[in-house]
Write a structure and sequence with these properties.
248 residues; alpha/beta; Rossmann fold; seven-stranded parallel sheet; binds NADP nicotinamide-adenine-dinucleotide phosphate
Amino acid sequence: MEERQKVAVVTGASSGIGSETVRALVGAGYVVYGGARRMDRLNELSSETGMIPRLLDVTISDSVKRFVETLPDTVDLLVNNAGGALGLDPISEMDEEAWLSMYQSNAMGTVRMVQSIFSRLKHSGQGHVVNIGSVAAIETYVGGAGYTMAKHALRALTETLRIEWLGMPIRITEIDPGLVETEFSLVRFKGDATRAKGVYAGMTPLTAKDVADAVLWAVTRPPHVNVDSILLRPLDQARVDRIHRRGG
Ligand SMILES: NC(=O)c1ccc[n+]([C@@H]2O[C@H](COP(=O)([O-])OP(=O)(O)OC[C@H]3O[C@@H](n4cnc5c(N)ncnc54)[C@H](OP(=O)(O)O)[C@@H]3O)[C@@H](O)[C@H]2O)c1
């Protein structure tokens, strides 16, 4: 009998780590459904890779529902990558709207996706959920609380799923990268390209492909092996806020 082609879903596929993860998974033979809010970007990636592009805003329940309705009955892999940071405000100057939005995309968005795709993952008999966390899921830094609180919540979610799903054929992995040069800082600083560039000044950050490689490694282990988490940082970063910069 011909082997069924595996199905993967990647959220936040329109940029950075999500786009590279799509490339890696298509290269490994998956049929990939990629979701995000910017359809033009998804369509470009679709032309390049064959990914199936779908509109998705993980902060809106109806959008998640509509996205999931278009998926096949079986999904083998869900990569929860959609998210990011907004601003760098200390707690005393919290921007409530921005902080709630970070919780909505990074934490609640992942819960919505997991809840909606759960039956399809179970149906596959060898499901796998990969959450893109961050060093911000483990460490804290000045001005980072809005983001670190959301990513710490994501880590709690990952760990809870591992207990709740014990005995089920669904693996659960968290990938926690340090600094990766993507559009992350551009979004964080509301399009201020100079400030965004400064985040990576004088150091060598990870690339989106470095993170996609880690995702691919985790999902291609034998089915009885659960990679709980991978923490990967640039050599130039010892802690979330301890970075070695050269020159300048
Ligand atoms: N770059 C880093 O240094 C770094 C480090 C650790 C962890 N991470 C995490 O890695 C993930 C990917 O970030 P990135 O570095 O690749 O940044 P990026 O280039 O800004 O990509 C973020 C992606 O998330 C999508 N997204 C954001 N909000 C969304 C929403 N409400 N619904 C659906 N999609 C949404 C964006 O698509 P649309 O705008 O088109 O919707 C985009 O595709 C994030 O979870 C981030 O927190 C990044």
